[in-house]
Amino acid sequence: MSNPAAATANGAPAAKPVEKTPSYAWPCLIVSLLAAVGIVFAWMWLPGITFPVFKNWLAENNAFFANPANFGLLSNVMGLVPIGALIMALPTTILVRKFGAKATTIIGVGCAVVGSAISAAFVGSNFYVFLAGRFILGLGLSTTVVSGPTCVSMWFPDATRGRAMAIWSCWAPVGIFLSNFVNDGVYHLVGSNMANLQWVWVAVAAVFGILFAVVFRDPRENERSQVSPERKPLKAVLKFFKSRQLWCLIIMFAIFNYMNYAFSQYLKTWLQTPEALGGFGWDATTAGLWGGLIVACGALAPLGGLILDKTPKSKKYLCVVVGILGLTICSALAFHAEFFIPYVIFFCIGNMMLNACCRPLVPTFVFKGGATAVAFGLSFLTLGQYAGQIVTSYALAPFNEGLTAASNVAINAKQAVLASGGTPADFGPAIGQAVQEAMAQGIHVDPMLAFWALVPIGVVGCLLAFGVKPSKKQAAGAPAAKPAEGEAAAQH
After folding, report:
1. Cα 283 to Cα 287: distance, rounded to the nearest angstrom
2. Residue 12 lies inside a defined structural domain of this protein
3. For residue 187, what are the contacts with CB-CB under 8 A and spacing of at least 6?
């Protein structure tokens, strides 16, 4: 495959795309990955410490929550980030077109740092300004996750692009795992203060952003992959988006994120919920470790990327089918303690394949349009990603309400013991009594609320995954798009 549309600045044909991965591609991949991971810490600290802990902290430290009715705003803490990301997804293409992928990534990280700083400064005083900071964080998140893989795609040729972009796609699972694992400890280390916790992650995101700015550069002419860094006019690349496969992939990716976001938000809370109320009764450290490891199974994406690279072009869609089917089966088993092991297995299959395959497939549909087309395709993918996540926080709200109430039973019992002068040795009897009272009140985890919110949507995703299958003409090697007149115009 080649990029006939690419040209040098003086009008001469561009150098032939490299077939061997340039050595400097790997440092560029690493710093692009770290830039995104740093934002995850600022985004996902709440699931890391759990909703009940945050709710109790607000009750004690923010006068706004003296009125219990205001706790209904908590769904916006996670919901506003993907809303901001959704709004910024498509405009990021304009930034890439105007400033380039590197500068756009720096803009995205900077925006996320500013938003996180606002949230840190106002979490204890003005909750609405805190939420505004979360929204701004979402703007920066979207900008970074569109421009970041665009940076990577320019460095890696067809033979290794799948695994390289799969490695980059580990940004979310790796970040979420680390967030689940370390946030409880960091929270106590900074004096159990939500503002201080967020300032820590502001600093981490800023450091990773600076590292990216120093290390990353665009590939030289003799280092370019089939995806040219050339920034064509947006109008010139629109012809590459008349693709049934691309749109099925984008919509399916939205469904994947809708389903997956439920697990990343609620898994740790469920693992800490008392057994008699439908959970596992694990302490925060154990729940953080195992919950983080499970959610981080998307870090297996490089293996999925290798599978994608080795799969024949006409069969690559099956990698997507296997992924969404695994996640749908996982959703049917989720939050049932008796099905925990098969739930984890199918969750890992779904995340490994979908994190590995979706982003790398976008350049295969639009690579002839250069960096602009790849960024535009990834913008639509990101649009689908955060559209799915926005819906999750609200569609799963009834399930989360019961889950939070059940998890709070143990938390409140422990706090009552300590407040009365007791010791951790007294936790067991106190929790046992509190659980009995909760059961009498009908408090428990209802997994069927999650089932009906997730599984039917997953079935739709499976059907869309089959839509990624290439036509017989494309499978035989014909170009996905007609050689439009605009291609020649794009060179001028």
Report:
1. 6
2. no
3. 49, 53, 193, 194, 197
**CA-CA distances (angstroms) from residue 407 to 209, 268, 344, 433?**
37, 10, 21, 14
Residue type, 323: G
Distance between start and end Cα atoms, the chain = 22
Residue listed under structure tokens 């967020």: 198
**Residue 338 DSSP symbol:** G
As a whole number, the mean pLDDT across the chain is 85
> pLDDT digit string (tens) for 154-165?
888 877 878 888
Helix-strand-coil percent breakdown of the chain, rounded to 5? 80, 0, 20
The rounded distance, in Å, linking the Cα atoms of 298 and 174 is 8
Q: Which segments within 229-312 are labelled E, that is strand?
A: none
Single-letter amino acid, residue 76: N
Half-sphere exposure of 138 (CA within 13 A, CB side): 27
3 state SS for 94-143: HHHHHHCHHHHHHHHHHHHHHHHHHHHHHCCCCHHHHHHHHHHHHHHHHH
Residue 332's domain comprises 25-475
Model confidence pLDDT, tens digit, residues 48-71: 887 888 988 998 998 888 888 888
Q: What is the number of other CB atoms lying within 10 angstroms of the CB of residue 315?
A: 11
φ, ψ at 13 (rounded to 5°)? -60, 145
* 22 SS3 class: coil
pLDDT at 12: 45
Q: Which helix (H) or strand (E) element contains residue 15?
A: none
Residue type, 293: L
Alpha-carbon distance 181 to 34, whole Å? 18
Judged by DSSP in three states, 13 sits in: strand
Distance CA 64, CA 5 (A): 58
How much of the chain, in percent, has pLDDT values that exceed 90?
35
Distance (Å, whole) CA 81 – CA 277: 31
**Which DSSP symbol is given to 282?**
-
**Per-residue pLDDT tens digits for 418-464:** 888 888 888 888 889 988 999 988 889 899 998 999 999 999 999 99
Q: Is residue 8 part of a domain?
A: no
Instruction: Give 263's contacts (C-beta < 8 A, 6+ positions apart).
Output: 294, 295, 334, 347
Radius of gyration in angstroms for the set of CA atoms belonging to the chain, rounded to a whole number: 23
Query: In this model, does residue 489 exceed pLDDT 50?
Result: no
Element (H, E) at 2: none
CATH classification of the domain holding 425 = 1.20.1250.20
Q: Which residues pair with 13 in a beta bridge?
A: 7
Q: What angle do CA 8, 11, 14 make, to 5 degrees?
A: 35
The answer as to whether 185 is a domain residue is yes
Q: How many domains does the chain have?
A: 1
CA 191 to chain centre: 29
Return d(Cα 37, Cα 50) in angstroms, integer.
Answer: 20
Whether residue 18 is contained in a domain is answered as no
